[in-house]
Amino acid sequence: MTPNNLSDTACSGVNVGVVIIGRNEGDRLKRCFASVRAAAKRIVYVDSGSSDGSAQWARAQGAGVVDLDLTRPFTAARARNEGFARLLELEPDIPFVQFVDGDCEVSAGWLSTAANFLEANPEAAAACGRRRERNPHHSIYNLLCDIEWDSPVGQARSCGGDVMMRADALRNSGGYMESLIAGEEPELCVRLRHAGWQIWRLPSEMTLHDAAMERFSQWWKRAKRCGHAYAEGAWLHGAKPERHCVRQTIRAAVWGGLLPLFALGGALVNPVWLLLLLAYPLQMLRLAFRYGINSSAGRFRAVFTVLARFPECEGAVQFWLNRVRQRHSVLIEYK
């Protein structure tokens, strides 16, 4: 079977379709394709306005290609939905779909591992594994991403962008919420769990990600996007019993907004109020002991965990201002 036949006939491999989304990923997209070509039954690539010829290259590889309508606001959620719809057009009976970002490489054996798990566990809607950074020591920001991806295995509350989904569960849920500029995966998982499905994180290597973050400004924008996602998630599903993202939103508001405002505002009356700002280094020290104060990774993680509350608060405030002004949120991109 040649690659050029991918869009017309199924590839040899496990009974899984792969939906790749990307824009101007270059060699990263080629590595992504290479990592799934032999194992996937069908590949669909969703392009969001690349100027580097990504869509044309993907067509030459035989993939089904979706060119997003850029007159509508772009979100990863919309890209995944349109990719999934195209996959179902090509393979109406496909049981599982692996979503992967174009800057990722799928680990060998992952597609069969995840598909076998979903096959053996009919109550599971989604399975994800360990996502790693390609160059974790290239920058502190890459390292922080690698640490973030290392979450506990077992039944989980949510997944990330790289995940294998049961096609029926995704279709019956209505898919990803396309208006969300971030946090679309946890929001979908809330609805899936409410419908009785389970989300699982397996103890297997899943993908290799290339964050390519080298500047503090990139890290700030990424954290700001998280804050926006927390606030919107809490607005959507913050009521009991779910309380989705409520704790994260309150934490960002207190540490990133209220505490410094109280300290600086109180200092106008009495400088002793500035002592409140000592809470930041004390919190960093507390977290350093938790994460490993004897390792540089643990110390960096502690410092940036506290610092992240400021851009997270900014993102949350941006969401609420947009709600008040009845404006659509604009995508927050860090690269």
Describe this structure in words.
With 335 residues, this protein is of the alpha/beta class. The chain has 2 domains: 3-214, Spore Coat Polysaccharide Biosynthesis Protein SpsA, Chain A (Alpha-Beta Complex), CATH 3.90.550.10; 234-325, no CATH class. 47% of the residues lie in helices and 16% in strands. The protein has 12 helices and 9 strands. It has helices spanning 27-36, 54-60, 76-90, 110-120, 140-149, 167-173, 184-194, 216-237, 246-267, 279-291, 296-307, 309-325, and strands at 16-22, 42-47, 64-67, 96-101, 104-106, 124-133, 154-156, 163-166, 198-209. Strands 1, 2, 3, 4, 5, 6, 7, 8 and 9 form a 9-stranded mixed sheet that branches. The longest helix is centred in the last third of the chain and has 22 residues, at 216-237. The two termini are 36 Å apart. The relative contact order is 0.11. The model is unreliable at 1-12 (pLDDT under 50).
